[in-house]
């Protein structure tokens, strides 16, 4: 394997890894209701897909360009065939014949007759010059293309044909076993794909929670800052205001409790159900404030 093939293989491998990882993270972020991260992962997924498709197309075009030159004998034979082919040459002076003027008035104006004859003669000369110069070159190009499809000089068979060996007695049994394994593998993949897709749809859907709600729900946050140390409680309150819309019209109040300089807790009263909590925690981990990043550490719901 040469260096170019190795580099091309590594590029395709890297593109496949990026495609698989970005697609997997996009599904994970959709399940977690982290829409901004899902959009970024989707952009990486589409970019990797376009890069792989472009690489395949360019590799195919390059392989067509690098095809071996046509065999000289096949090209020469195709060229001779093209040169011997009959070419239909229309008569440029057909308008002067009696057959063309049958049933019509003859041309009586000598000026028109002379001008038409001169133009027809010029067109005849130009046509013959073009046929003598451009036609051979064009025929050579066509012959080169036709030679690539010609069979090998020795034919399709380079030697005597060996008899086809008799099929073993257990050949049908082996084919049946292979077919059964293929059916089982495809069925397993289909079932796993259906289960994974169903779980993703189930997790990403916005379903109402049961009417009975816990007394309180505590969400512990780890807040990181790039510059300075702004008040943690104010940052947690800003995060809550940014993500309050995920609970829609659900009646709930939130209290912010500071946990040192790098953490805070949101205490929701009354608490929220499983689906609402997933939407809220996904928004808290996904929303971006200026120079602030928040991560959900844990959630605790206390029953009434």
Task: Itemize the secondary structure elements and their pairings.
Elements: H1 3-31, H2 35-65, H3 72-84, H4 110-147, H5 171-204, E1 216-225, H6 232-243, E2 253-258, E3 263-269, H7 274-286, E4 292-302
Antiparallel strand pairs: 1-3, 1-4, 2-3
Helix pairs in contact: 1-2, 1-5, 3-4
Write a structural description.
The protein has helices spanning 3-31, 35-65, 72-84, 110-147, 171-204, 232-243, 274-286, and strands spanning 216-225, 253-258, 263-269, 292-302. The chain is an alpha+beta fold and 304 residues long. Among the domains are: 3-65; 69-87 and 129-147; 216-302, Alpha-Beta Plaits, CATH 3.30.70.3400. Strand 2 and strand 3 form a beta hairpin. It starts with a helix and ends with a strand.
Kindly provide the radius of gyration, computed on alpha-carbon positions and rounded to a whole number of angstroms: 39 Å
Task: Write the H/E string, N to C.
Answer: HHHHHEHEEHE
The CATH architecture assignment of the domain at 216-302 turns out to be: 2-Layer Sandwich
Mean pLDDT: 75
The third-level CATH topology of the domain at 216-302 is Alpha-Beta Plaits
CATH class of the domain at 216-302: Alpha Beta
- Low-pLDDT stretches: none
Main sheet overview? 4 strands, antiparallel
- Judged by helices, strands and strand pairing, the structural class is alpha+beta
- Give the strand line-up of the largest sheet: 2-3-1-4
Helix content: 55-70%
Number of helices: 7
Dominant shape: elongated
Number of extended strands: 4
Percentage of residues in DSSP E strands = 5-15%
User: What distance separates the N and C termini?
Assistant: 69 Å
């Amino acid at each position: 394997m040469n260096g170019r093939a190795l580099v091309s293989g590594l590029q395709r491998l890297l593109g496949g890894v990026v495609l698989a990882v970005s697609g997997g993270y996009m599904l994970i972020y959709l399940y977690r209701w982290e829409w901004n991260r899902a959009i970024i992962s989707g952009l990486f997924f589409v970019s990797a897909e376009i890069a792989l498709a472009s690489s395949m197309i360019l590799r195919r075009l390059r392989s067509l360009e690098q095809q071996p030159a046509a065999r000289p004998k096949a090209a020469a034979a195709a060229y001779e065939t093209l040169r011997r082919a009959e070419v239909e040459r229309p008569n440029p002076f057909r308008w002067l014949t009696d057959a063309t003027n049958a049933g019509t008035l003859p041309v009586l104006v000598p000026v028109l007759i002379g001008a038409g004859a001169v133009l027809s003669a010029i067109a005849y000369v130009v046509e013959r010059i073009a046929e003598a110069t451009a036609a051979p070159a064009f025929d050579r190009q066509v012959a080169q293309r036709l030679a690539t499809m010609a069979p090998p000089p020795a034919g399709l068979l380079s030697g005597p044909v060996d008899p086809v060996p008799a099929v073993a007695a257990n050949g049908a049994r082996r084919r049946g076993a292979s077919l059964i394994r293929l059916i089982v593998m495809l069925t397993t993949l289909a079932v796993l794909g259906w289960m994974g897709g169903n779980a993703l749809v189930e997790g990403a859907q916005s379903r109402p929670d049961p009417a009975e709600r816990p007394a309180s729900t505590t969400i512990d946050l780890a807040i990181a800052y790039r510059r300075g140390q702004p008040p943690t409680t104010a940052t947690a309150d800003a995060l809550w205001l940014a993500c309050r819309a995920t609970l829609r019209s659900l009646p709930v109040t939130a209290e912010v409790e500071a946990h040192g300089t790098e953490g805070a807790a949101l205490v929701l009263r009354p608490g929220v159900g499983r689906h609402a909590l997933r939407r809220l925690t996904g928004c808290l981990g996904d929303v971006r404030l200026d120079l602030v990043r928040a991560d959900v550490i844990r959630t605790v719901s206390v029953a009434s």
